[in-house]
């Protein structure tokens, strides 16, 4: 019988400021070498469960734990803070939250220093993990200059350099382009088979994983286990193709726009325009310049050359907490004062924020944070809205609501530029695709031109969407 890596009996968890438990009466075990996926709606406690398994909670928060949990056959409370972390490595949903050092090499060295690794062993271990993860060329790169997807790969390398027995992954594919995501799953498969690594992952997009997982635990909205079963591979959810609402009038026009930071060209001169009511998907490989483009459009990155002509622009970043200014979700959504109370209530209901309206924006799940930021920008009624990975951390029902809101607002004349790696979502919502690679714009295309062009797809690390005709009534 394989060793039990985790064993939970009647485990519950509650944050002290909350009346309701986040997790309730969880009982299950995980055996060495298992590949387990945790699923369930956004905000149901999946990430909280990961943080209990690695002892981040309650060692580093004031959470209240009931029940029993054993790690490697030993009561969890018997471990001193930090003792378990060289055996259980974690890759968080927001990779920025776990970086301490400026460059990739220094971050890996810092991880080894915390493990008291002899200096002579550091360089070969760093070289080996960089080669294993395909990051050797980024060894001396400043981490904060990397794209969100590349940061995710660096965070994974930092976890693997510890030679852990267990790897906890919180939506590891959410920032990866489709091609890189498939590579990641294939690479993880080889790693797991070679080392008998135990893998526990939180994931919404299960289709890319194929048959990787052997077991699935589903959590309900109340933080209870609703199913513990063999994993069944999923087909991607697809959306009805919305009719275009684009109008002849121009909402945004970029001319000879380029960005160079510290003598490093990030974006070559490009030009394009967006019509009023048009939905444009910005797509391309990780690190190609997608986030740089939308940051330059809204003025976060200073333009080196060129101009941007547009009405008021709203922006939802990859890390939505950078926008938050208030003490509650409802205050955050209402902050601009541009919408009536009736409109605010409708937005809150549509994006499933009613149940967390009194919560602090920093205290909700990552997926909920994104929905709060999206609601705040929609409430501000900006005529042009830029979104960087808005589908990350969202369950299927939340994606459908986002799809409907974009459809509704575009018909009212709002224009959207959306960075996403979710090609099924893109296929449903896009009028056009703006493709970028290596900091250069390949072109702006009608969406249907891209889906049937294998050369364009391969060149930009994209996979054709599986279809666009599943009816919305599936969620009724």
UniProtKB/TrEMBL annotation:
Topology in membrane: Peripheral membrane protein
Record flagged with keyword Translocase: yes
Domain ABC transporter, chain residue ranges per copy: 6-247, 252-463
Entry EC no(s): 3.6.3.-
Location(s) in or outside the cell: Cell membrane
Residues in coiled coil: none
Keyword Transport found: yes
Principal localisation: membrane
Gene3D superfamilies reported for this sequence: P-loop containing nucleotide triphosphate hydrolases
PANTHER family, sorted: HEAVY METAL TRANSPORTER, HMP_THIAMINE IMPORT ATP-BINDING PROTEIN YKOD-RELATED
Family, per entry: Belongs to the ABC transporter superfamily.
Protein name: Energy-coupling factor transport system ATP-binding protein
């Amino acid at each position: 019988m394989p060793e039990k890596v985790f064993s939970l009996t009647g485990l519950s968890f509650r944050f002290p400021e909350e009346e309701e438990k986040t997790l309730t009466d969880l009982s299950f075990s995980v055996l060495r070498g298992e590949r387990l996926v945790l699923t369930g709606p956004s905000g149901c406690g999946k990430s909280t469960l990961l943080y209990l398994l690695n002892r981040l909670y309650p060692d580093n928060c004031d959470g209240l734990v009931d029940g029993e949990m054993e790690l490697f056959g030993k009561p969890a409370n018997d471990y001193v803070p930090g003792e378990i972390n060289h055996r259980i490595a974690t890759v968080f949903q927001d990779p920025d939250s776990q970086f301490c050092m400026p460059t990739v090499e220094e971050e890996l060295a810092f991880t080894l220093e915390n493990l008291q690794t002899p200096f002579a062993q550091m360089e070969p271990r760093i070289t080996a993990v960089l080669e294993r993860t395909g990051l050797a060329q980024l060894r001396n790169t400043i981490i904060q200059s990397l794209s969100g997807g590349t940061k995710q790969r660096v965070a994974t390398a930092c976890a693997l350099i510890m030679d852990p027995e267990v790897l906890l992954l919180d939506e590891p594919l959410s920032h990866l382009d489709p091609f890189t995501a498939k590579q990641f799953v294939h690479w993880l498969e080889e790693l797991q088979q070679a080392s008998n690594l135990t893998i526990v992952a939180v994931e919404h997009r299960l289709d890319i994983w194929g048959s990787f997982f052997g077991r699935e635990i589903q959590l309900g909205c109340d933080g209870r286990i609703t199913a513990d079963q063999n994993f069944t591979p999923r087909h991607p959810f697809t959306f009805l193709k919305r009719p275009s609402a684009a109008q002849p009038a121009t909402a945004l026009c970029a001319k000879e726009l380029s960005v160079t930071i510290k003598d490093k060209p990030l974006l070559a001169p490009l030009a394009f325009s967006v019509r009023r009511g048009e939905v444009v998907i910005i797509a391309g490989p990780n690190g190609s310049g997608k986030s740089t483009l939308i940051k330059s459009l809204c003025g976060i990155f200073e333009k080196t050359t060129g101009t941007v002509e547009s009405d008021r622009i709203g922006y939802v970043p990859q890390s939505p907490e950078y926008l938050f200014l208030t003490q509650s979700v409802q205050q955050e959504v209402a902050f601009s004062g541009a919408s009536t109370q009736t409109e605010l209530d409708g937005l809150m209901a549509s994006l499933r924020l009613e149940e967390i309206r009194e919560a602090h924006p920093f205290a909700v799940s990552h997926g909920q944070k994104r929905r709060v930021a999206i609601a705040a920008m929609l409430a501000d009624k900006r005529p042009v809205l830029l979104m960087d990975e808005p589908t990350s951390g969202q369950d299927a029902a939340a994606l459908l609501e986002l799809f409907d809101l974009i459809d509704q607002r575009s018909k009212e004349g709002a224009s959207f530029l959306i960075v996403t790696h979710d090609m099924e979502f893109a296929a449903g919502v896009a009028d056009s695709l703006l493709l970028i690679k290596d900091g250069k714009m390949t072109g702006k295309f009608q969406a249907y031109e891209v889906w049937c062009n294998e050369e364009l797809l391969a060149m930009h690390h994209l996979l054709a969407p599986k279809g666009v005709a599943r009816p919305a009534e599936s969620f009724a």
